[in-house]
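Worked problem 6 (solution included).
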Amino acid sequence: MNPMPELIPMLKDLRLSGVLDSLEVRNRQAIEEKLAHTEFLAMILQDELARRAQKKLALSLRRACFRNHKTIEEFDFSFNPNINRSLVSDLATCRFMDEKVSLFIVGPTGTGKSHIAQALGHCAIRQGRDVLFLTQTQLLARLHAARATNAYERQFKNLTRVDLLIIDDFGLKPLRSPQDEDFHDIISERYERRSIILTSNLDFSEWGEVFQNRLLGVATLDRLRHGAYTLTLDGKSFRVPKSFPESIKPEPGIESKNKLVKGGEKR
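Solution. The predicted structure is:
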């Protein structure tokens, strides 16, 4: 007698319908290997736990709003060998989050700041922590839109309560009022409570210039820098442009608006 028709509604009622994905295979394995009932049950439950963990991971990655799913394992340390790999490995343990301090990843464009920031966020998610990745522009746009729809308080709580907030491209655009106040309030609320990863192309000496209100900038940066770790990336850019061929001939009958000449320049 096939027990599957009776099992299906019971598993659904118990919210264990995922068990059905491997039940038939595990049942056959138990018969072939003459497993005890408890061994069969343990395999089924392990499969369900693994499925739920994978589902939770996928959901957390979506909520993190990463640009792409970068990991530490995918980062090419040999491209710029001066990068402090041992520091990156230590940061990947997320110990800095337990210390409730910030992390600055600074360096020229294209050296892998966003990759490492997202990869560390991925490590945090694997540990069961909530992560949110936003550029400075996206962060401020969220607050501006929330203020316009009377949802500022809810959005502010989301940004301050997430376990790890990653702010990419800090200082790429100057902070005008009330942006500088919003940014300060987020940093102040997270100070000594939850960690922030901040990436920037700017030297530390230039960070104060990002703020229109210099006094507010000093107060914000003072909180950010307290106990913070710094990872400096220096070297070649990963974003190497492809070279154009000596001549590019348009297809017959098609006249190109912008003719490309040697070197890829427009004329």
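Discussion: The two ends are 79 Å apart (CA to CA).
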